[in-house]
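Batch manifest, entry 17 of 40.
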Amino acid sequence: MINRIAEMLSLPKPLVIILLILILVGIILFAVYRNRKKKRRNAIENAYRQKMREEELDRMIRNTAKKPTPVPNKPYETSYQQETGEGLFSNSGGAVVKAHIIVQSGSTTKKYVVNISDELRIGKSDSNGIVIDEKWISETHCCFVNHEGTLYVHDMGSTNGTELIRKKQRVRLDNQEVKVMNGDEISLAGIMMTIYLL
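Output type: structure tokens
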């Protein structure tokens, strides 16, 4: 085949071989260039989709966000007071929010079924409704609040912060009260809580 090509082009055989090698190398380089260009385009598209998802989640959070209700510096109310609507907020309109809360700390998992008519505080102090005795948890880290039958969460000025995780997107709760949806995860300095509304 090479001899025939050499005869057709009236070129020496070694020169034909060199030309064929150059053509083959060019084809390979072009294929590599197209592959890299495709990967770069896919990376840009994925980054754009990720940004759109983050913006959509941020809009969802902002739509449900409220200014936090001032919380008096008082100990956590007893379960009896919660059930009778005599807690710190007393703005639930009589509607009790029932939730299943799973707390994951390292290899330890604790499960709680709670009825929240006013508020449920979480932190290291024994005065909280759910006590998490971990180094990075503040004395009172965060608080769930029942507003007319809808559950909200806000950070209580914790040292290491509170994050809401929804559909793998993380939003830090800074001076805002955010509506809790079924299946939401909340990170307290790396301690994970999963909320299931009943």
